[in-house]
Amino acid sequence: MRWNKPNLRNNLHDLLGRDKPSSTAWVRDQGLEEVRRAMLHSLMGLTGCEVARMNMRLRYAGDIEALWYLRSDLLDTLTLLRGEAIAQTVLDRITPMFQGQLPLSLRVPQMPHAPRAHL
């Protein structure tokens, strides 16, 4: 008797280079999906080829690192359609959602708070 019988889903995951789903994968992926929803939500109400392309890239991003790198593309898309100020506000709201989910090599160093000058 085989413990792990091959099936189409296992073979598909192998071909795509993705990890096989585990019983705890849904817990780990909750943060990923929360970030993905926020990024997709920022495109709601917008139309056009660039929006459709960005929407697809966000939907099919395989991990949190892929979403991290898509932030700059999202910023560019939003800047074209909504203006720089709104695009930056959206990015400033989404970026903290990555906290604790990225590998050490991708984490943004925390800037120490500058001491306030006493007047």
Automatic annotation (TrEMBL):
Domain of life: Bacteria
Record-given protein name: Uncharacterized protein
